[in-house]
Amino acid sequence: DADVTQTPRNRITKTGKRIMLECSQTKGHDRMYWYRQDPGLGLRLIYYSFDVKDINKGEISDGYSVSRQAQAKFSLSLESAIPNQTALYFCATSDRQGLGNQPQHFGDGTRLSIL
Amino acid sequence: AQTVTQSQPEMSVQEAETVTLSCTYDTSENNYYLFWYKQPPSRQMILVIRQEAYKQQNATENRFSVNFQKAAKSFSLKISDSQLGDTAMYFCAFLNTGTASKLTFGTGTRLQVTL
Lengths: 115, 115
Known about the structure:
Radius of gyration of chain A: 13 Å
Largest interface: A-B, 25 and 23 residues
Strand content of chain A: over 45%
Oligomer: heterodimer
Largest sheet of chain A: 7 strands, mixed
Helix content of chain A: under 10%
Mean pLDDT of chain B: 92
Number of helices of chain A: 0
Order of helices and strands of chain A: EEEEEEEEEEE
Low-confidence stretches of chain B: none
Largest sheet of chain B: 6 strands, mixed
């Protein structure tokens, strides 16, 4: 089983719908992250959480919200989806110790298309 | 804020040859980490190699090595004996220890390995 699991793998939805992307991990890491990937732009940080009670905005948080339901679960919501949120979304985790010695581990991504 | 620049959107190399992917970054910090991630068509994000800024020795992982030039803020990836399985998007990423595990990614280089 994958250490970092994202569901769904793919999703097509309509403008204005509320969407939730889920991430769960079995690595026991404290820190979890949500990124989006767009062609030509690389990965950009949406939100990150250092523990259940610590949630922080990344560089592109507008239009998104998150919930850290437990150490192992971190979900991303689009309250009212719009077409320019069409992207590949990644969840990642890292251990609090070591920083660079413990790099981020990524899920397989959720491809989201908003029509 | 840190920036990471990958100036080669696409590259091609023949099987068994060597290729070098470029990455430059901008930071005023002295302690940080640098990474190369590989994203094959399966879209997974796979850590290829990491470099700690305080280490002068260039990191090596089998056929993958880096040329880390701290003064020039350059971090290139060399792939020796290229294989078809190396075909992927490659992302350079910067982690500043002061910002606690937040990765900044470059825009990526798409590498095609040909017969």
